[in-house]
Amino acid sequence: MSNNELDDQVIRDQLEKIAKSPMFLNSGAKIDFLTYVVKETLAGRAEHIKAYNVAVDGLGISENFDPQKDSRIRVLASRLRQSLSSYYRGDGAADPVIIDLPKGRYLPFFSHNTSAALPLTDRASWGDGLRVMVWPLNYAQKGGLAGAISHNISASAI
Length: 158
Description:
The chain is mostly helical and about 160 residues long.
């Protein structure tokens, strides 16, 4: 089991889904990093996940790697965090499991995606998604709020 009582296979499946997503298709180093830290965690070796081990064992960087002098792993971890965040805001929004890499460590965190479990009643009636309209104060003042709304409705009907 993992750090949130999720089945290891469910986590592996989620890792595979992330790796195959369009956002990660050309991101070999990020996927290698994520795969290494997830597999090490699931194998019970989380205490060994350090920058040096990620570099040498996970990414195949030379054993001469010095994490104090070389920022590659820190930079890659930062980029991976950004990509995971984007993934879960987009393609992965409905995925049942979230794999996160909290800042400050290279230890992944696994959790149930509670927003994926929310009912999506009659999603087809939403069209291509919900919209929130925000107008500058001066726009609403020119034609009033009703004018702003009717302008937007007639513009979106085009």
